[in-house]
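// run 5 | inverse folding | seed 20
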């Protein structure tokens, strides 16, 4: 069972992370590797990253954003004035694309537990390690998208102290991880999941 061991990595997340760091392969790779290394802190799990999967995830993610923008821009062209309005997918949609491709092309090739001294881990650390061995692919993808949406929404509402209203329960995360592991979930479904998490709790 998840014990909510994920802590918000504020040092790398800001409201324009998609437009700045994650707009290039190098920046995308840096964010992704910091994120996954953050998840295994304290467990002695050693990660082996695959540069090819990371590149594929980045390219597919960027292509989805570009297609979504092009499609909406085409629909918003001013027919009477000829003025084109620029459309940019919102953070929910970008997070949905990101989570989908990180799960599909997981940048972590190996979650190596050979160095893990299970008997010396605290109960939370052991639970964290076991959870990542089972759901690392799904958890890593979902939580990065969630963390970015959380940061954007909390800043829009007033700051980090707003995070509490958007916290996810252990049961919700457990069900979501099983759902993502067993089912084929589209990028647009991920977008709606993130949007529903935050929009229903804003009031």
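// decoded
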């Amino acid at each position: 069972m998840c014990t909510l061991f994920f802590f918000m990595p504020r040092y790398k997340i800001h409201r324009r992370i998609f437009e700045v760091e994650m707009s290039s392969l190098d920046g995308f790779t840096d964010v992704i590797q910091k994120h996954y290394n953050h998840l295994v802190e304290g467990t002695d799990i050693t990660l082996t990253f695959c540069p090819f999967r990371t590149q594929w995830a980045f390219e597919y993610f960027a292509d989805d954003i570009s297609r979504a923008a092009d499609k909406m821009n085409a629909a918003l062209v001013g027919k009477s004035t000829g003025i084109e309005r620029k459309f940019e997918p919102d953070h929910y949609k970008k997070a949905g694309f990101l989570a989908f491709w990180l799960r599909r092309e997981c940048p972590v090739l190996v979650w190596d537990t050979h160095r893990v001294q299970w008997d010396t881990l605290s109960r939370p650390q052991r639970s964290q390690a076991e959870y990542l061995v089972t759901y690392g692919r799904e958890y890593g993808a979902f939580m990065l998208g969630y963390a970015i949406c959380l940061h954007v929404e909390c800043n829009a509402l007033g700051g980090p102290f707003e995070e509490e209203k958007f916290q996810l329960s252990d049961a919700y995360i457990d069900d979501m991880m099983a759902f993502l592991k067993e089912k084929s979930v589209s990028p647009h479904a991920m977008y709606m999941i993130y949007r529903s998490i935050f929009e229903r709790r804003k009031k």
